[in-house]
Design goal:
28 helices; four-stranded parallel beta sheet; alpha+beta; 43% helix; seven-stranded antiparallel beta sheet; disordered C terminus
Length: 841
């Protein structure tokens, strides 16, 4: 469950269930704004603002227990469907900490905010056009040329490049807070690769699901039309009528990867990494299992300097060589263009009011903090007069060689003050000064009542064919402490949905569905990048490996027939122990049965345990978030939870067997989800081939271990259990287990869905429908290998089958897996693939 929802945001039930008025009075008792700061709940005269009064009265109409149950369900939904984030510098993800209360803004106030954000976006676009074009603003002295030219975000290879589609920016965000006078101010401009829109979308989905009556009654503005307009704006930048759009990510270890996957799935974009892209023959293409596919627009979520190691940062492994040249020639459009991070820098803030008058002919509607660039002698003198009352920050982001003072902070010590004064003396252009920030507050739950907490509102704007459009809502970060300095997502910070309340009824339904006359019906495979196919293949392999270990452990605990396999003196038990040890599931083949079973199922430190393989599968799935359903995520989470459960109270063989059986039910559920829910024109073939390869290998290994000449009844019983075929065998043979029939069912029977023969047939079927890159009519290596193996299996007889042949088949299955990998998902720009034989489409 989401930690925020579970611990802080659920109002504690009263000793008795009181009425709405009593409930509301209890929630708001003692609520007061912090001294000298505006508050969202309270108007300046201390009364409740109308929007909040309407919201709280609606919410108070629900009993405390009902609210608690709904928010707890929302927390489970967040956890089980993988809605998460990674704080900067952390290796693991955290559940998304959404708060129970939205931030409410009246429609009339929002109109002023939206107009100001749109104006600011247009202003920054004009500044970028000049900085990467004529440079007239610097020549006129309207902005400091030295600061711009020395900024690390000023990317010289982009100077003179006409932005494809006519815009440097397609997406903009501004971080807002109320000033002491209650007016909104801009704390920061986000132009590099603005994040948070996906989380704003998730916040909306979670809150609308948790409080549908309240959400519907307040006429909250919908956000779907904003995303539709943004998608149309990107498409308009392309030269083709039906462009292919990719969201360019730095990969699953990006702090905002989950959000990027949400947006890619919602908008219908291909989520691509730098290694997925290839610039060749004047085109930018995505490496897919069907060869190269042209991409027309890239929505960049990689820092601009990392886009192209050829012309920008040579150490980058996140971009693709040649992308800058592709932008230069106009064959691909990019939102936002590399170099747009330049106008995030603090040195520009002091110049924006004058620039707005010059470029747009109007006053700046949403001012920033009062700011002074210390490289200007006049501004520096003003700063020195107020030195003790100002905060300092690097003029450029990131600063190079500049003293780094707290961007938003007070209480400098003597050493920091001395160093700061030295920089102001020697390199004043490296710093800007601004008035310290003290954030206004909004109400949150502290467990029993409402309390004021500081917040920052991020508002998004998209460039559309009709101009800038602002999302009616946004992304709100709220601190869990009274500290009024600006906050970033991490420990002690939660998110909140942003509800813009319309003065008129809002249409009940809005979506991204385009008009039917704009869509041509197709029945073709979706775009599947080679990297995604690789992860799908290994997702299937790890899940099958987990199942094999779990099934082997269950046999060890349950035994064959009525005889327990968990005893020390059984040869069959010894073979199971040895196989678990060889697979890396247990540290030793010796020891008590329960201890070994616990290692095999739940010891994440054992590289071959069921839990280790389940975690590996989840890591592969983490790179496929845009392709997996919520049900699949829940099943993956549940599998991990079952295997990861603490050992206390589960150290008996019976309890461990129950754990194994529950885990097997979940692996079956995951296989069923893939079988029944994945489109056959998408990635299903690769998930299925991964499972088939591993299941075929396991069938061979099990036959070698338990199906040798002289195998006991217990051996053959375990062999049937391991391939889940005991019932089928009993229905076919009434005389009991015998070596040849068991071998036939495990290895050669094409009708048994667990046999080797069945897996090889399915591999042949999957390969047959995958695209071929060759034009010579010759079957590719994976197809040839599978066909050869299939023929040998079809011709074999169980009674005379040498185990050496089975061992050879096992090795050839590994060879097939390697051939599939080499054919469909090689990585890197120098990958050996016949890409030049494909047609760009």
């Amino acid at each position: 469950m989401s930690a925020a929802l579970a611990q802080a945001d659920i109002p504690a039930p009263a000793p008795r269930e009181d009425g709405p008025e009593e409930r509301l009075a209890r929630w708001t008792a003692g609520y007061a704004a912090l001294p000298g700061l505006p508050d969202e709940l309270l108007a300046p005269d201390g009364s409740r603002r109308p929007a909040w009064d309407r919201f709280l009265r609606r919410l108070a109409g629900l009993p405390d227990a009902e609210i608690a149950a709904r928010l707890a369900a929302a927390g489970r939904h967040i956890h089980e469907t993988g809605i998460a984030y990674r704080a900067y510098g952390e290796a693991t993800e955290r559940d998304w900490p959404i708060g129970a209360l939205p931030l409410l803004i009246e429609g009339s106030e929002w109109q002023a905010i939206a107009a100001g954000v749109a104006q600011r976006a247009e202003l920054l676009e004009a500044v970028l056009t000049d900085l990467y074009g004529e440079g007239a603003l610097a020549r006129a002295g309207l902005l400091p040329a030295a600061a711009a030219a020395g900024d690390p975000e000023f990317l010289r290879p982009l100077v003179g490049v006409s932005a494809p589609g006519g815009r440097h920016m397609h997406f903009y965000a501004a971080d807002l807070a109320r000033g002491p006078d209650g007016a909104w101010r801009v704390l920061a401009d986000r132009t590099q690769a603005p994040s948070g829109a996906g989380h704003a979308l998730e916040n909306r989905l979670v809150m609308a699901r948790a409080l549908p009556e309240v959400y519907g009654a307040l006429d909250v503005e919908r956000v779907a039309s904003f995303f539709q307009a943004f998608r149309d704006g990107l498409a308009a930048a392309a030269t083709r009528a039906e462009p292919r759009i990719g969201l360019m990510t730095s990969g699953p270890y990006s702090d905002t990867y989950v959000e990027q996957a949400v947006l890619a799935r919602y908008l219908g974009f291909s989520l691509v990494e730098g290694d997925d892209l290839l610039v060749r023959d004047g085109m930018v293409s995505i490496r897919t299992v069907a060869g190269l596919k042209r991409v027309d627009v890239l929505w960049r979520r990689v820092d601009g300097d990392f886009v192209d190691p050829l012309e920008l940062n040579p150490a980058s492994r996140l971009g693709a060589p040649g992308l800058v040249e592709a932008l230069r020639t106009g064959v691909v459009a990019m939102g936002n263009m590399p170099g747009t991070g330049l106008v995030e820098s603090a040195w520009l803030t002091a110049s924006l009011p004058a620039l707005c008058e010059r470029l747009l002919g109007e006053s700046l509607r949403l001012p920033g903090l009062p700011t002074w660039w210390c490289g200007d002698p006049v501004q520096r003198d003003a700063v020195m007069e107020r030195f003790d009352f100002l905060a300092f920050r690097p003029a450029a982001a990131p600063a190079q060689g500049a003293f780094t003072s707290r961007a938003f902070g007070e209480g400098r010590d003597a050493a920091e003050t001395a160093r700061l004064r030295a920089v102001l003396r020697d390199r004043p252009g490296d710093l800007v000064a601004h008035e310290p920030v003290r954030l206004s507050t909004a109400p949150v739950w502290d467990g029993t009542r409402l309390v004021p907490r500081p917040f920052v509102l991020r508002v998004f704007a998209a460039a559309t064919p009709d101009g800038w459009q602002v999302m009616p809502g946004g992304f709100c970060r709220i601190s869990e402490t009274p500290d009024v300095r600006p906050v970033a997502m991490g420990a002690g910070v939660r998110a909140a949905d942003v509800w813009v309340l319309s003065a008129s009824p809002v249409a009940a339904q809005a979506s991204l569905l385009p008009p039917s006359d704009r869509v041509t019906v197709r029945r073709v495979p979706g775009l599947l990048p080679s990297r995604a196919a690789d992860n799908l293949f290994w997702l299937g392999r790890h899940l099958e490996r987990a199942e094999a270990v779990i099934r082997l452990t269950a046999c060890f605990l349950d035994g064959a027939g009525a005889v327990s396999m968990a005893t020390e003196d059984r040869a069959t038990s010894a073979r199971i122990r040895a196989l678990l040890h060889a697979w890396g599931a247990v540290p030793s083949a010796e020891g008590p049965a329960a201890a070994l079973a616990h290692h095999a199922l739940s010891d994440g430190g054992q590289w071959g345990s069921g839990l280790a393989h389940a975690l590996s599968a989840r890591r592969n799935a983490a790179s496929l978030r845009e392709r997996l359903s919520g049900e699949a995520w829940r099943a993956l989470w549940a599998l991990r939870a079952v295997l990861e459960a603490p050992a206390e109270g589960l150290d008996s063989e019976a309890a461990l067997l129950d754990r194994a059986e529950r885990a097997l039910s979940l692996t079956a559920a995951l296989a069923g989800l893939a079988q029944e829910n994945m489109n056959r024109a998408g990635g299903f073939a690769f998930v299925d081939m991964g499972r088939r390869v591993e299941r075929a290998v396991n069938a061979c290994r099990f036959a070698l271990e338990f199906g040798a000449a002289g195998a006991s009844t217990d051996d053959l019983g375990v062999l049937l259990d391991l391939v889940d075929s005991r019932i089928s065998y009993g229905a076919r043979y009434i005389l009991g287990v015998a070596l040849a029939p068991v071998r036939d069912m495990v290895l050669l029977d094409p009708y048994n869905p667990r046999s080797l023969a069945f897996q090889v047939e399915r591999l042949a079927e999957r390969l047959a429908v995958l695209p071929s890159l060759r034009q010579d009519g010759v079957a590719e290596l994976p197809v040839r290998l599978v066909a050869g193996l299939s023929g040998e299996i079809a011709a074999a007889e169980a009674a005379t089958l040498p185990l050496g042949t089975v061992a050879d088949w096992e090795m050839r299955l590994w060879e097939i897996a390697e051939a599939i990998g080499a054919r469909y998902f090689p990585g890197g720009s120098d990958a050996a693939r016949p890409e030049n034989l494909t047609t760009l489409a």
